[in-house]
Amino acid sequence: MSGDVKFCIDRGGTFTDVYAEIPREGDAGEVAFVTLKLLSEDPANYASAPREGIRRVLETVHGREIKRDEKVPTERIEWIRMGTTVGTNALLERKGAATALVTTRGFGDLLAIGNQARPDIFDLAIERPGALYERVVEVDERVRVLGEGERARGASVVGSTGETVEILKPLDVESLRPRLRALLDDGITSISVVLLHSYTFDEHERAIGALAREMGFQHVALSSALVPMVRAVPRGHTGSVDAYLTPCIRTYIDSFLDGFDEGLRDVKVSFMQSDGGLTPADNFSGYQAILSGPAGGVVGFALTTSAALRDDGDDGRTPIIGFDMGGTSTDVSRYDPRGGYEQVTETTTAGVTVQAPQLDITTVAAGGGSALTFRSRTFYVGPESVGSQPGPVCYRKGGALAVTDANLVLGRILPEYFPKIFGPNEDEALDYESSYKAFEEVTARINAETGESLSAEEVAMGFLRVANEAMCRPIREITESKGYEISSHVLAAFGGAGPQHACAIARDLGMSTVFVHRFCGILSAYGMGLADVVAESQAACAAKYEDAQGLKRAMDDMIALKEKVISQLISDGQFEASAVRCECFLNLRYDGSDTAMMVPEPDDGDYAKAFRERFVREYGFDLKGRALLIDDVRVRGVANNSLLTRLPIACCKPGEKPIANTKTRVYFENLGWCETPVFQFESLLGGMSIEGPAIIMNGTSTCVIEPICVGHVTTYGDLKITVPNVKEQNETVEADYSRADAILISIFSNRFMGIAERMGRTLQRTSVSTNIKERLDFSCAIFGPDGGLVANAPHVPVHLGAMSSTVSWQLEHWGFDGLHEGDVLVTNHPRAGGSHLPDITVVTPVFRDGRIVFFVASRGHHADVGGATPGSMPPFSKTIADEGAAIKTFKLVDRGVYQEEGIIKLLTKPDTGSRGTRKLADNLSDLSAQVAANQRGISLLNELIDECGLGQVQAYMNHVQDNAELAVRDMLKTAAQNVIDNATRLGAQVNGDKVTLRALDKMDDGSEVCLTLTLDAAHGTADFDFSGTSPEVSGNWNAPPAVTNAAVIYSIRCLVKQEIPLNQGCLKPVTISVPNGCFLSPSEDAAVVGGNVLTSQRVTDVCLAAFGACANAQGCMNNLTFGDDNFGYYETIGGGAGAGPDFNGASAVQCHMTNTRITDPEILERRYPVILREFSIRQGSGGDGNTKGGDGIVRELEFLKDVTVSVLSERRIFAPKGLAGGNDGARGVNSLRRVNGEVVDLGGKNSVQVSAGDVLRIETPGGGGYGTKMS
Description:
Family: Belongs to the oxoprolinase family.
Protein name: 5-oxoprolinase
GO molecular function, one term: 5-oxoprolinase (ATP-hydrolyzing) activity
InterPro entries: ACX-like_C, Hydant_A_N, Hydantoinase_A, Hydantoinase_B, Oxoprolinase-like
Low-confidence stretches: 728-733
Pfam family, one: Hydant_A_N
Radius of gyration: 31 Å
């Protein structure tokens, strides 16, 4: 008998789900199904969970026992399709293969440094994921890409992109043989190869690959073969992931396949890739496997929901949101039947950036296992998870309260329908009593702290509301932030907990329809059976779309790629060429922008038109007059599979109502306990309607239909739930919101922060300068009508709280009567609350019914605002006139009219007499982006007000600030008590509940930052007194007061060690005293460009040292600018972080007051006249101690033309201090090696003219050590 059984399997981290389509017994040609869920790891009973599931199903099909030790028979199997988290788990747990990295000399640390950014800007104990490779081999080879019109100095070739590539140093491949042999001798048999510019010139990588394979390496990952896209860091990470995971995946697949009989060679076995397509088992590799399991769920919800909508007469235009709620996190994604799956070409998983086509899945740390905590009178859900061991309280293993416990005590989880697998012996039911008792305990504490009289049920419901809001945020992000209306979507809920929350999520988002598939609990497995087999190929390109020759070259590449993918799909005989269709894409971007969009081939073939339409929809404007560039050509070959059969269920008779299996009590918001019928899914018939409240049990998946919602059972057994829009009309009856609701504080904190974050994403996407778009040197924030900060998205720490001074100054200057609807203000002057001149702030008042109810603002570092040197960071500026255009205030938009002539005059002909901007076009574009970001914030605030009412929104604006104040007071009380307890060690003076600490540090010129810090343990206050700080300096490291405020608020936020909103409340328990005339409060005309980037770091070091929190970090941002009259480039270079009492300082990372990214080496060299000769970790530069300070960075650039180079840095004279007996970190060094061999020490601050061939070397400081080193 030929194969007639189909298997779809999702091998997850905890459970393996199996869906099998089998012949229906007694009905020739008809099919039935079997579903299974079994533990992924159960070595006492089976070696492979997927194979065990197949064995159990085949026992039914064959009608006989198949022993576990015999080969599984395959004659009845038509195909097997699998998704697996094996690769993802190996990456998360760092349990991949032993690998080595082979890379260009000088770049052995490139992947370890990455983009320099730290993952959590407020965590002093910086945790960066470890490298995937164990060894590094640096290769003596080097090429570079020539600029347009540039001539090579030596040998050159034309790369695959059409760019000319100069061979600076040819590869001697045989010289690598002994070094590769040493790897093999040490047991390393998998390597990844990433050489600079191999995306266009892959000859050197291919030669190394050929040698490695000839020598016996089992797996060789060439970055140029995997993802031929520009940017060495993500391409290198992708190669490393592939080398690290593919051997594990091959071992897993071989183990799985080994248990079948020889007939398996005639069975089609395929695996789900991260892009949502299947690939034969032989082609499945590591970098394609990271989203293998979740991808099945996306395919499952997309195709099942769209099919169900078509059954109802939908025209195929309704988009769908997938909502997959699991144990530790929730995945959301979007599918539009007209445009297909939404994909991205770059994602970060487990700290590793992978550059490959992947489904666009957004994950939020809110799931059934998310921990529930109450801190500082606020409800928190996650981001910590209680895990599966010990798990939630109800698991009977001594766990902590989690979302699952809340659902249990509210009656949304019914223990009698779950298997008895809990407790120490894994033979008990879920424990309702313990969960309820735990809620009673936290409720008693909440009531004691807040004066409320909440019940345990109200508290549990409050936590669910907070969890739901956390899960709404990513849905808003993938819809509203991209120009889509949420309410036009259908919500497809699946996963173990998704259907429990779906009605509430849909109601909160204004969505009217929820779809729950009959196999929602195993939809990732079911989706495997609906997916196509795909083959992908792409090529890097460097062409202008408007250039006929360039476009022809791209189209020729597309034809070649089509032939390649078709050949792949027909090579094994599975498909005929006629069964393959090709989807073609161009990766397009505007010249000067780094935001590329992968545009699918439009019906009319006009890629440019399709790109511009999408750009306008997502960003709200078009960059007219800019050339359109083709970065990559991509082709996706798709071969249609034989799919699963949709199996209908029996239909009900007209008027027949469902019969409840039992009744239970369920707690609902605003209604309390409601008697609720419970239905078994198996008892429901097509055509039945179920009015809420109701619970439907479908295996171990629970669907909650909330009151006034109605569920309709479809012909195919799915559930379509109608959710009426019942938003309260808050404007009609304004309630009293003067008393804070702890639950709503958390919800509004989320909403305010979400708005600020989406403003930031709009700014990043719409800006053109590298500083904002790539380096992320910007911040966005919301302010109250008094100018007080409400929410500041944590982008760049030096901007924290600083913009409040800016908004307050504008408000004081203009007054409420001087501001009108449609006004937009622009400012950058330090006297008006600014930091330094390149940081331009755009402020927009938010009007409601004719009065100002909020302000929104965005601050971004512009590429140039004039001044003495390109980049507007002159090292030797003496007054603000040397630093560029200084604007106290100007109405960029006056009552809706854009004042272009006025802003151009201010930027090009500054009142100070300074030279004007060198990058006017970029300034104007970035200002437009800032206006757009503010407008996005206004729209979102108005939506929030429409939803909740102005009275409630403004009341909770104040309550959120009060809550932040409380959190800071609690921290200061704890910190003060800790200091009192350790007064002798810290050198503190104790006077009752008050304790005084002192700290002092020097700038390189000897200027002192003096701090006397007084903490009050009784009242939770802190007084930061900077009396004794040195006078204003004639240099440029004077810092406006806003910078000191930002350093203080950053330091406090680091010490709180919990999520709190960054707002004005943080500073209410804090007083900051800075004497006028000192260099932390200079005169109006003082030069300040270094205060933002240098002095801010010293103030932070002093604050943290006073608390005894950590040793000094590198204490500098290592500012480098170079350029001429035609271009300017700016970067900040990371260094070593300071060690703390129980953690080592991180190496080669941005510290404290900055977290900007650094430009990828290939982008840098492609765009600017430099060669990056070295980018490495400065080994041994961190201070020693009981815990060690982080090491700095070595960055070496060779200039290819005459330019002006400016360096603005610190810690070149005085080293970063160790703490508590730890050693100091190494001082930084800036040197210039002239083309004639002369080496010049540039000191900390210098501006020099360099010639072609000169080499700049910057060695950044290390962090200080902490504690005396133990012998």
